[in-house]
Amino acid sequence: MTVSNVKAGPRNEAGISAVLGILKQAFGERFQTGQSFREQHAHTATGLKSQLPDGVVFVESAEDVKAVVKVCAEHRVPLVPFGTGSSLEGQVNAPSGGISVDFTRMNRILAVNAEDLDCTVEPGVTREQLNEYLRDTGLFFPIDPGANASIGGMASTRASGTNAVRYGTMKDNVLAVTAVLANGEEIRTGRRARKSSAGYDLTRLFVGAEGTLGALTSITLKLQGIPELIGGGVCAFPDVKSACDAVIMTIQMGIPVARIELLDDIQVRACNAYSGLTLPEKPTLFLEFHGTADTVPLQADQFRDIAMEFGAEDFVWTSDPVERAKLWKARHNAYWASRALAPQLDGFSTDACVPISRLAECVAETQADILEHGLLAPIVGHAGDGNFHTLLLYDGKDPKEVEKVEAFVERLVHRAIAMDGTCTGEHGVGQGKAAYMDEEVGPALDTMRAIKTALDPQNIFNPGKIFPQD
Amino acid sequence: MTVSNVKAGPRNEAGISAVLGILKQAFGERFQTGQSFREQHAHTATGLKSQLPDGVVFVESAEDVKAVVKVCAEHRVPLVPFGTGSSLEGQVNAPSGGISVDFTRMNRILAVNAEDLDCTVEPGVTREQLNEYLRDTGLFFPIDPGANASIGGMASTRASGTNAVRYGTMKDNVLAVTAVLANGEEIRTGRRARKSSAGYDLTRLFVGAEGTLGALTSITLKLQGIPELIGGGVCAFPDVKSACDAVIMTIQMGIPVARIELLDDIQVRACNAYSGLTLPEKPTLFLEFHGTADTVPLQADQFRDIAMEFGAEDFVWTSDPVERAKLWKARHNAYWASRALAPQLDGFSTDACVPISRLAECVAETQADILEHGLLAPIVGHAGDGNFHTLLLYDGKDPKEVEKVEAFVERLVHRAIAMDGTCTGEHGVGQGKAAYMDEEVGPALDTMRAIKTALDPQNIFNPGKIFPQD
Q: Where does the record place the FAD-binding PCMH-type domain (chains A, B) (predicted)?
């Protein structure tokens, strides 16, 4: 029951009714209970059915957040933080109803400290907005999960994406957050110093907590200098194993690739059709190198040697921004290209991540599984991290197809976990992966539960997420 | 009261007496209560007075750890994990007595996964032991806090050291741990996949927890490829500000220095005398570059340009291992060189860390403070991280000197915190910095307390550390 549907939770009708009245009074036009607002705030971007909140409040400041938390806490009503709604595991659903807290108006960039390579933003700032703002400073924020997600949402799901192999995930790029807790108090989890040993790492606790421990009100991020030169290229391999072996060798040699993405033959075919390209329809790596006029060619040459050793015919790269953009267009449009293979069907993305030594094996077994069960599912992966997505295309109205997809996802999750990997490399747990938490983390799940209970004893923050429901 | 002395905590005499009997029975020769064993296990490597445990148990397996935890939990008796005793803030003291759990016999390297650049070790493995073991694999573990500390201790204090600027701190290099909790259960906090979004980041919670949440039983670490070439050099500047400005520029330009260490003029003088060198007695940066025959010279040249811009006369570097070792010898011996300035005196190391834009200012103000108060205190810093140590030399038997040192430390801590920095960049809180936690983390301290209480309700794990005592 992880692909299409999740159970509703218990509803505190009296509390919800009271909170609706209070918030209407307090927030006026900034509190909405209309059907379309509620639907927009429970759109899960996957096959998971929407579970609507009872109202949507548009917060504009930390004071607003505190006010909403206090009202919800007093009446034991859930609140679900909402950024842009691009999460993929039902994180913005409201299985027990309650209030969606929309952060899109908390989108101020509070400070940019260029000398320290950091900035502080409100949770509703999107990554594109931030990079647009930073452009003149010569700095950029590197994490790119694909969607133009909010920084608050990215922090909350521990997002990563195409260039995590070089720059890390949100865990590595958040220096500190401020958050409003269930008691209505706001805490700051760290300072702007690059490192600290001052007690428990609350920053990393809130990163990836999916809004279940508190509501973020600001995020302090590390920034990077915009590289002097960016090189990009595409390289086809005879089979997936060769491509993965080239990735392993690249990582082991310490070549600081900024992106190294794997597309399987079906994905390349989809991309050719969608983006008007003529790439060989073989397993292909897309690469990007960040550096200087001296170092980018060195990196590219080192990679070419490795690629040839593993059966690539050639490796063409370019530092011309227009050409590079054209080459990478296929990768950037991979999701829509896949959907275009069968526009009438629904799409569901998996998110397994394994140690890179097991990547070739995991991808090959998954491809065989897809073939054996007659599924349509292109594969695209952040190969340098051992993380790959299969985009399953299926008819969500046909229970048999849904069942087939469910069974496939379950096999894939077991396969990844058996290889010392995870069911979720970057999408988070939400509702979709909660059923696998016990298998993956074992008794550590009780430790997580103890922390949740200690910080949010009434379970008002995003209930029904991360932890398996009865 | 942070430099010389800390309060004793309450003692549970009946419980301690019961536990001593049970552990003697269960562990025989592996449980010791003699004075010399107890003294060795409470040596704090600072001015803080020793607070002895009542007994020392030498554990050899996770099963041993579970057994000890169960006995201690049943009788509400503290247990204090002990690695090599090189911590600097009284982390191994036993203010309420109890059992020191010595991990030196849990020193097996359990697995090295060369293809995945990771390994799993028991907590008692030291970093030198690990690197010795890894040598033939072409890999190394980069974190170097100076002392030959245990990996368990390094994880627990969130250690870093000279090359954190390139490779990060323990927070960035621990993939997962196993830990025995207060309930006697062992959990595993993560898997070997490079990234994961599977729930709360318990790995980072145990890294830096100083043994207050549980006892580590294994640590899975990231490894790095040994660089093809290492270059090292030394560069004198006219003043501290120029040296710091060169560091800021180096970091901003994205030059991937592996080490960039600041020594002030007094420290250089001490090093010259101690190591038989003739370095100009000016503020000096020690650098190391990791890369290839192509990239190391590029990095060194880029740095030279920056250094000249900020008033350095020249920058000499070498890739010859013997010459490099000689140059770096001064840095490696800095602590002992400082102590040799006045061998009859005690030494106390501070650990402030500020955003690098504030480093020059913080160091300059601290130097002025040292001068104004007639203190002897060379400065050495991990400049790329904004972290610096002053080694105060004072007579620990003279209450007036102790008071003077205390007052200086307090001013330094306030200064660092006021600059959005921390009182502890890498040494941890222990007992020595507990008094500053409230000032530094504010209401987040209550959140830390709530987590501590949730995971260790009887406060048996390393009590009296991190949290300020009444």
A: 49-226
